[in-house]
Amino acid sequence: MTTTRSAHTGADGDGAGLARDLRGVGTPVVQLHGLSSSRRRDELWGLDLTAGREGLRVLRYDARGHGRSPGSPDPAAYTWPALAGDLLGLLDEVFPGRAVHGVGTSMGTATLLTAAVAEPARFASLTLGIPPTAWERRAEQSKLYELGARQVARWGVARWAELTHRPPTSPAIDPDRPFLPPDVADEWLPAAFRGAAASDLPSRDEVSRLTMPVLLLAWPDDASHPLEVAAELAGLLPDARLEVARSPAEVEAWPRAVSDFIEGLTDETGAAPPR
Q1: Is the pLDDT of residue 83 over 60?
Q2: In this model, does residue 170 exceed pLDDT 50?
Q3: What are the phi and psi torsion angles at 101 (to 5°)?
Q4: Rounded to whole angstroms, what are the CA distances from 105 to 131, 152, 225?
Q5: Is the pTM higher than 0.90?
Q6: Rounded CA gap, 80 and 200, in Å?
Q7: Which of 128, 180, 200, 233 is the most exposed place for a label (fewest CB within 10 A)?
Q8: Which residues pair with 21 in a beta bridge?
Q9: Distance between CA atoms of 79 and 193, rounded to whole angstroms?
Q10: pLDDT tens across 10-66, in order?
Q11: Edge-first strand listing for the sheet containing 214-218
Q12: Would the CA dihedral through 16, 18, 23, 26 be positive or negative?
């Protein structure tokens, strides 16, 4: 797996211009959202995995073309290696020379794994939430993304979201969570879908060589985030544990699980807080 620092990030370097915020004081953490989401959307859907936790210095950002970050009509800007380049560039800027704890969901998980394979020393640990389809399962998902790209180009984001909205299938997803369209502009979402369609996780062999501690968070009965992929990652990664949420209440407990995981590692290593 080769991760190339994105050519779509501006003259100031990888990740330049991406909307971000820093909160808290303590252990350095970077948090990533999923495809078509954003910091705000994750908050509204209960997927802000460091919300309300103390002792963490958390960098959150909207991925390229998502939320308040600038985008591109070029699908190459949204492939997982390109997004990993954005991430690594942001870490160079915000936490220079520091190993950070990475926390992500879905596309954020894929971005973290891609970046960790490229530069493993940058990550003290990984929290990989609801991993996306991968490997043999990826081809069918890619077809769905290509279909979605064509539909969004024809209908626009808002109408596409209304026409394709379905109730959640996983018992862990709150059935009463608000309906939110993708937090991506009409002109960028088709490219974002096509970038995802062209992407896959690093190879099983590359994943198996990652030695940092990993917490995997998953839920069942979600075709876009198969529990089988999370279980296989747990088997491939040398130092990993898998927690499966089967109710909304268990998903609500994920931020505590994440902070307890990171706090335990910090206590073990005696890592100093960021300057």
Answers
A1: yes
A2: yes
A3: -95, 120
A4: 7, 23, 10
A5: yes
A6: 7
A7: 180
A8: 60
A9: 9
A10: 333 467 799 999 999 999 999 999 999 999 999 999 999 999 999 999 999 999 999
A11: 20-23, 56-61, 27-32, 100-105, 123-129, 214-218, 240-244
A12: negative
pLDDT at 16: 74
Query: Tokens 């088709």 — which residue?
Result: 190
Query: What is the pLDDT, as a whole number, of residue 266?
Result: 79
Candidates 207, 206, 244; CA nearest to 225 is: 244
In contact, 124 and 265? CB cutoff 8 Å? yes
Residue 95 has pLDDT above 50, yes or no: yes
Confidence class of residue 269 from pLDDT cuts 50, 70 and 90? very low
Separation of alpha carbons 100 and 91, rounded Å: 8
DSSP labels, 97-163: T--EEEEEETHHHHHHHHHHHH-GGGEEEEEEES----GGGHHHHHHHHHHHHHHHHHH-HHHHHHH
Q: Are 87 and 32 in contact (CB under 8 A)?
A: yes
78 half-sphere exposure, CB direction, 13 A CA radius:
30
**272 contacts: CB under 8 Å, gap ≥ 6:** none
